[in-house]
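Here we describe the complex-level prediction in full. Unlike the single-chain runs in Section 2.1, the two entities below were treated as one system.
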Amino acid sequence: MSSVDLRKFLKKHKSGWLALTPDNKKEVASGKTLREVISVAKTKGVNRPSVFKIPNLETYYVG
Amino acid sequence: MDFDYALVTDWPKHKPRQRYLPWINIGIKKPNAKETIWPLGLVDSGAEITVIDREIGEELGFNFKKATKSLLTGFGGGKVEVLILEAEFIIDDNKSKSPIIYKDLVGFTKNQFSLSHPQQTAIFGTIGLFRNVQVTFDYPRNIHIERLILK
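The structure predicted for the assembly as a whole is:
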């Protein structure tokens, strides 16, 4: 399997929520709130968007 | 079910660093409700409980007044307040015949994730994921999830 390449989305956005297509390959909406990006995604015909908040990747996570 | 690792780049000291992270989409919904949200979150066997951003719980209509409050402690001693409720989880790679669906507890963050935390959306831990399914990591190619068969 190949990896899901999120680099272009993370380079473009520094904060807020993102909605992508279910395969995480295309951006469908970005915005300050989750509601906003889900709403825009649905108007674009993406009824099951993948959603996430822009992360801070400059630190490693240990849990 | 098979999921890809996510490839990301960050820029510590202005130098690019590429990382493969086990981030996958798992559907979450209020039990017996219709709407499902599919956050992209970290599959984390070191987390005792699944933690999801509060905004997702609010959007799904969870009643936080009925939640059990708890304080989670992370490595290094950081504390996060969570509101624990039962949710329905849906695992679907869009290729398998039928999704894996189960109910389990989830902790919604009382406030936002700490801004310094590398994950801001969801962390899928033992409660909410690993005690319901078998997960195999094949870094950096594949995360395989199948139904847990209890012997």
